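Revision sheet: structure tokens.
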Amino acid sequence: MTTIVRLPAFATLGLILLSATGCSMLPSAGPDHSRIQSDAAIRVRASSVADTAPYALVDISSAILPYFDQTQNLSLHDGLKAANGPAPQAMLGTGDVVTVTVFESQAGGLFIPTDGSRPGNFVTFPAQSIDASGNITVPYAGVVHVADRPIAAAQTEIEDRLSNRAIEPQVIITPTDSKSNRLSVLGDVKQPAELDINPSGERLLDIISRAGGLQGPAVESYVTVRRGNRSATQLLATIATDARENIFVRPGDTIYVHRDRRTFLVFGASGLNGRIDFDESNLTLGEAMAKAGGLLDNRADPSQVFLYRAVPRSTLDKAGIDTSRFAGDEVPVIFQADMRDPGMLFAMQQFRMQDKDVLYVANAGSVALTKFLSMVNGVSDTSAAVPANLVTARDSVDALVN
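Predicted:
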């Protein structure tokens, strides 16, 4: 015996409207995968490259992974033209306060009297500042230009000037206040300050340590070094692991440490929706999905996981994607991951997330029908409950009157 189930008239009408409107009248967390695919004039599959369009739709595969496993930060070493090798030599500079000491090999010379009235075989002149012209004055040697010169070179010149009057003179210049040998450390450090640079040379991490260290986590802290008319920025975690980026500091540098919270957005049929912090320095797409609570079994289409990102044109060019019709230096790209493919989980663990990425998980096609049937069921329940509600209301009124 065959049982025929007849839907109420309004349910039949609803199904007709549902098919006619393509489920657009039902609530949804975002565009479905068919809309995303139909609006893309470029479709880059794992095995092919198509023409360009307002946005490019690219399948995540092992073929594209090498082009998206890169950081975009400018190298401090390259950006500041920092040289490899030993620490830069300490220089004297305008505003430094120095003392000059002259030694003679025996008494009876220019500075050491023969009667022995002065103890020792040397004389130290009063401290003086290097003037705006970069000069100091030494008795019997005259005005000597010392700014922007190594201490040893300035000492040798003074010795040469005194050699025909003093007995085998030896000169020592001692900086007592090196105003020109300073730099500034600002931003998210515990003790922002103007610091003297050790004459033996100091690197970037040494100076940050002397400023009390970081206020925030290293994986979200960036260091900007301004040197003259050049500046460059690098992630502190990279500076700590790459010796080339831990450059020697120089007098006059301004070092600014700032924290930039790295986040990504998640929408659609995932366990969590909203803004989520990276926390780790090298978050992958697989880890990002785990942070977002994974896929909802009763809603998500595992083949329709999308990642939205603005990608540098040069990166797409290297990957063999034609970008000739895109305007600007960045191209809007939607990456698609099919999690029904067992190999995709390996690829997702190698595909690096970037700051401000957007993840979207589309609903499965059956979700629209499920929502509609829930609406029909709710209306049916309400209709069936009307007579009972009327009886309950009548009994309550009678109880109040009587």
